[in-house]
From TrEMBL:
SMART domains: Alpha_L_fucos. InterPro entries: FUC_metazoa-typ (IPR016286), Fucosidase_C (IPR031919), GH (IPR017853), Glyco_hydro_29 (IPR000933), Glyco_hydro_29_N (IPR057739), Glyco_hydro_b (IPR013780). It catalyses: a neolactoside IV(2)-alpha-Fuc-nLc4Cer(d18:1(4E)) + H2O = a neolactoside nLc4Cer(d18:1(4E)) + L-fucose; a neolactoside IV(2)-alpha-Fuc-nLc4Cer(d18:0) + H2O = a neolactoside nLc4Cer(d18:0) + L-fucose. Residues 25-365 form the Glycoside hydrolase family 29 N-terminal domain. Belongs to the glycosyl hydrolase 29 family. It comes from Littorina saxatilis. One of its GO terms (biological process) is fucose metabolic process. The keyword Signal applies. GO terms for cellular component: lysosome. Its EC number is 3.2.1.51. Residues 1-30 form the signal peptide. Homotetramer. This is alpha-L-fucosidase. Pfam families: Alpha_L_fucos, Fucosidase_C.
Length: 469
């Protein structure tokens, strides 16, 4: 019979760590979070996360060796419903007795330079990174005590990948460091036995999942815990609320850490720190709860693909449009890159990261620390999305224009200008003439701006100061 870890008691579990439940302790702020969703959900989201707006996701692991199909390569080869293309790929290119574990020795990472990565991510304008510490394949990118011979120190690069990147990010940038961790593993015998037992046993949870989570939090102190792989089993199987109560009350990052919503079947989009709901979640309207749009530059994969075509990657226009809409509706965007097995972030990813940084250097005023306005999308112009900043009694509204008009005027339906309203364009000197268009709306006259004088290439931010609504 499964142990109910929700009970208010202190227990010694099998991996030798004593967990004092949240009812017996407090966070540094003086608040005690109980191991139930009502209490967990009551915790305020640390302000830094909402202010950040952009994060970088990094999917790297043994799946980067075959670098074909996606990071789900092993499952697509050996899972319950194998993908014919992946099965055929293995039959044509590898000996019959080749196993997935045989790929690990070629996860060499010889060109991985953590400082270089960290500076590249900071240059993108992002404010945090989330690195995959372990995907569903079970391979850990740190020398875990609970993943014998299936970790980055014992096989492959023979390095503590998580430790190196954590050190570079924390010591040489202003970025916040976070870790993705998969709760389950496709082919782990302990998990498969628990599953066969209809999750009435928790051997995998207490011998693998929880020990790893406590290990990475205590060792690397990530300020984002991005959970995944939760969808088959209920949250009580994963002991999710007990872990989160410890994280918020006792952990070394208890006051600054943020978590997502993937903590058990049916929990996503209902409970947790911020909501991810589904991959590439971009609802297009304001949400009542802080959300994150976790998305990929490669349209079809989170991991690196050797056979990816140029058209498989989102253009700068597409990336920035997605970002603007996400932020306008109150979300953050977590933009994913997939490095090669050698540890190189390929030029197409580098170009997109640099482009995002260039754009934010001009428009960041309307992005960072912004809030959703009364309107997200303009009522008249579908190519305009809004953000807002408040300073005392004053509010500045930022109208992000996805397409520059050819008519010489910009018509907006949502703002109501007043006698003290000023319209400027971020990155461009001078103000713009405008007039009201009835009880609501305004028409902005656009001067002829040469290509070389345009402040940015892909989308533009008009600052509307002192509008009346």
């Amino acid at each position: 019979m499964a142990v109910d870890m929700r009970m208010p008691t202190t227990m010694m579990i099998s991996f030798g760590v004593t967990i004092a439940l949240a009812v017996l302790c407090q966070s540094a702020s003086g608040t005690t979070y109980q191991p139930n969703w009502a209490s967990i959900d009551s915790r305020p989201l640390p302000a830094w996360y909402d202010e950040a707006k952009l994060g970088i996701f990094i999917h790297w692991g043994v799946f980067s060796v075959p670098s074909y199909s996606s990071e789900w390569f092993w499952w697509n080869w050996k899972g319950a419903q194998a993908t014919p293309a992946v099965v055929g790929f293995m039959q044509q290119n590898y000996r019959p007795d080749f196993t997935y574990g045989d790929f690990a020795k070629d996860f060499t990472a010889e060109f991985f330079e953590a400082d270089q990565w960290a500076k590249m991510f900071e240059g993108s304008g992002a404010k945090y990174v989330v690195f995959v510490s372990k995907h569903h394949e079970g391979y850990t990118n740190w020398p875990s005590k609970y993943s014998f011979n299936w970790n980055s120190m014992d096989v492959g690069p023979n390095r503590d990948i998580v430790g190196e990147l954590a050190g570079a990010v924390k010591n040489h940038t202003k970025l916040r460091f976070g870790l993705y961790h998969s709760l389950f593993e496709w082919f782990n015998p302990l998990y498969l036995q628990d599953k066969a037992n209809n999750y009435t046993t928790q051997d995998f949870v207490f011998k693998k999942t929880l020990p790893e989570l406590y290990e990475i939090v205590n060792k690397y102190e990530p300020e984002v815990i991005w959970s995944d792989g939760d969808w088959d089993a209920p949250d009580v199987y994963w002991n999710s609320t007990v872990f989160l109560a410890w994280l918020y009350n006792q952990s070394p990052v208890r006051d600054t850490v943020v978590t997502n919503d993937r903590w058990g079947k049916g929990i996503a989009c209902h409970h947790g720190g911020f909501f991810t709901c589904t991959d590439r979640y971009n609802p297009g309207k304001k949400q009542n709860r802080k959300f994150e749009n976790a998305m990929t530059i490669d349209k079809y994969s989170w991991g690196f693909r050797r056979n990816a075509r140029l058209e498989d990657f989102l253009s700068m226009d597409e990336l920035i449009h997605t970002f603007i809409i996400t932020v306008s509706c109150g979300g953050n965007m977590l933009m994913n890159v997939g490095p090669t097995k050698y540890g190189i972030i390929t030029p197409v990813y580098q170009e997109r990261l640099a482009g995002m940084g260039q754009w934010l250097a001009v428009t960041g005023e309307g992005i960072y620390s912004s809030q959703p306005w009364t309107y997200q999308n303009d009522t008249l112009n579908p190519d305009v999305w809004y953000t807002m900043k408040t300073s005392g009694d004053f509010k500045d509204v930022y109208a992000f224009l996805l397409k520059w008009p050819s008519s010489g005027t910009l018509d907006l339906g949502a703002p109501v200008p007043g006698s003290t309203t000023v319209v400027t364009l971020l990155g461009y000197s001078g103000s713009f003439n405008f007039k009201s268009t009835g009880t609501q709306g305004m028409r902005i006259t656009l001067p002829t701006i040469s290509f070389l004088s345009m402040p940015c290439q892909w989308a533009w931010a008009f600052k509307l100061t002192s509008i009346t609504n």
